[in-house]
Amino acid sequence: MARPGNRGLVLQLGGLAVGMFAFGFLLVPLYDAMCRITGIGGRTNAVAATIATTQEVSERLVTVEFVTVLNEQAPWEFRPTVSSIQVRPGQLYDTAFFARNLTDGMLVGSAVPSVAPGQAAKYFVKTQCFCFTQQNFTAGEGRDMGVQFMVDPALPEFIDRITLSYTFFVNRPATAQLISGPTAGSTT
Amino acid sequence: MSTASHPHAGHTHDPADAHHEDHHGPAKGLTRWLFTTNHKDIGTLYLLFALVMLFVGGAMAMVIRLELFQPGLQFVNPDFFNQMTTMHALIMIFGMIMPAFVGFANWMIPLMIGAPDMALPRLNNWSFWILPFASTILVSTLFMPGGGPAGGWTLYPPLSLQAGNSFPFTIFAIHMLGMSSILGSINIIVTIMNMRAPGMTLLKMPLFVWTWLITAYLLIAAMPVLAGGVTMLLTDQFFGTSFFQAAGGGDPVLFQHIFWFFGHPEVYIIILPAFGIVSQIIPTFSRKPLFGYAAMVYATASIGFLSFIVWAHHMFTVGMPLAGEMFFMLSTMLIAIPTAVKVFNWTATMWRGSLTFETPMLFALAFLFLFTIGGFSGLMLAIAPADFQYHDTYFVVAHFHYVLVPGALFGAIAGAYFWLPKWTGHRYDERLGKIHFWLSAISVNVTFFPQHFLGLAGMPRRIPDYATQFADWNMISSIGSFGFGLSQVLFAYIVFKTIRGGAKATAEVWDQPEGLEWTVPSPAPYHTFDEAPVVK
Fold it and tell me: What is the ipTM of this complex?
C-alpha cells in the first residue's frame, strides 16, 4: 500500500478542515429542514395558509394560550387581548394582540411567532396574521392586530394545550426606510 | 530490553560533545526559540506556555472562589465575576490544557516512533507562535471598555452578542487558537503516518501515540465547525446576517447545536491524550505490559467516533422531541462502554504487577479513581429526565471539573513527572513530588466534591451570589481551591528546580520501561534518531 507523501497527506487533512468549516455552515439549512419536517423549532407557517371551508370539526377541546415577548427593552407595549381560549380543532377562530409604539417617532414592527410544544407547530395553522406583514406605527399609536387560526384535527391526542407566543421586534431597516420616505425609495 | 540501536555513523551527538558549530546544534539566545523548528524546543515552548497559562487561568479561578467564599457580594462586581468564569474556561481549555498536550505530542511522538523530528517543522513553529498572540488578544479584552466576554465560554447568542468591544477580539482569538490546533494536528497526523521507524507498525505504536492520532483527527473535524459557528456570530453582529437572530428569521438554538457539535468532541480532545499518558505510566510502574493493548486502541477509536453523535445531551432542556432526548441519552450512555474498557484495562494492568508508587504513578492512580467519579456523574447527567433537574447547576460544574482537573490536568502533571528526567537529564525531587501529589489530591477533592452537593441542592452555576443555605459547602470548596492553587506553585517550583539541576538521570530513568524514548540518553540530545532505530 503506497503511503501518500507529506504533501498529499497535508492536502487531504487541510481539505478535511476546510470541508468541516463548510459543514458548520451546512448545519444551518440542515437545521431549518429538520425543524420544518419535525416542527421541533416550534415554527408555524410564515405565510397565510388556505384551508378547505368544509373542515370536519372535532368534538375535543384544546386550550390555546397567547403570550407576548419583548427583547432588549424593545419600545413597545405589547399584550394579547385575551390570554387563552378553548377551541375545537377544525374550526376557525379570531383573536387579537394589542401593540403601542412608546416612542415619539415612527416605528415598523415585525412579529415572530413560536408555538409550544414544538410537536404542535405543524398542526397550528394561521390563515391571517399580523406577523405575515410589517406593522407600521406612527408616534404613540396603539392598535389591535388580528390573528385568524385553526387547529388541525390531526393534532396528536396527548396535546391538550398549545401556547402561541409572539416576539415583537423593531424592524430597523424598514423603520429607516419609512422615515427617509419615498426619496430613499426612488433612488433604489 | 534494548530494541533499538542507533549507531552515529559519521556524526556524534553525545551531549558531552561541546562542538555545536555545525547545523545540528541549537542556536544561541532568544532567536533559538523564535525561529526553532526542533520538535524538542517547540515541545518545551508549548509546555512552558501551558504552565504560565495554568497560573493565568488559575488566578481567575481564585477570584471566582474568593467571591463565592461567602454569600453576598464582597470583592468583585457581578459583571467582572462573569468575565472571570468565561475567561477562566477559555484560557484553561484553549490556552492551557490543549497546548500542554500538544507539547507532550511534540516532545514524545518523534521519540516514541523513532522519528528524527516532526514531519513539518516550520509549520510546527507557526503552530506554536500563533498561541501567545491569540492568548494576548484574548486576555487583553479584560482591559477594554466594557471588559472581557462575560456570557460564558459557550458564547450562546443573544447574550454573547451583547458584549462590548471585546466581542470581535474574542472571536478572532478563538479563530487563531483554532488555527494553531488544526495546524498542530495536521503535523501530528503526518508525522505518525509518514515518519515511523521501519518496523513500527500502527499496532506497535505506544498508546500515547495512538490517542494523539485519534485526538488530532477529532481536532481537524471539530475545530473548523466552531470556527464556522463563531464566524456566524461575527456576521450576525456586524454584517447584518440573522443566523441566530429570531428577529431576522434565525434561531439562537441553532448556535447551541453548532457549538456542541464542536464542544463534545472537544471534551475527548482534552481527555484522550491524558488517557494515552496514563497508559504509558501504569505499565511502567506495574512492571507489566499494558493489558489489552488492542482493546485500548479500539476503545479510543470508538470514543472518538461516538463523540460526534452525542452533542445534544448538553442541551436537553431546549425543548427537543422525545425521540431526540432518547437518542442522545442512549448514545451518551454508550460511551460508558469503551470508557469502562479502558478503566478495566488499566486496573487489570496493575493486577499482580510489581507496583511502586513514584509521583507519576500516584498522579496516574488519582486520575484513574477521580476521572471515574467524573465519568459516573456524567452518566447521571446523561439521563435526560434527571438532567432537567441538574442542568446549569453546580452538579454540572462538579462533573466537568472532575474529568478536567483530576482527569486531564492530573494526566498532564503525571506525564510531566514521568518524562521530566528525559527532558532535563535530572531527576525531580521525589519527596517534593509526593508532597505535591498529596496536597493536590486532597485539595482537589475538597474543592470539587462539595460542588456535587451544592448542585443537587439547587445552586445554579455562573452566579456571584447565592442563597445562604449554600454557604457552608461553598466556603469548604473555596478553602480547597486556595489549597489547590498554592499546591501548583509547588509544582512550578519542582519543575524549575529540576531544570536547573538535580540527581543525574540515566537513559532508562525508570525500572526497565518500555519504549524507544528510553533508549536515547537523558537529557534527550538535540537531535535523535538521525538514523532510524530498529524496531523488533
Answer: 0.87
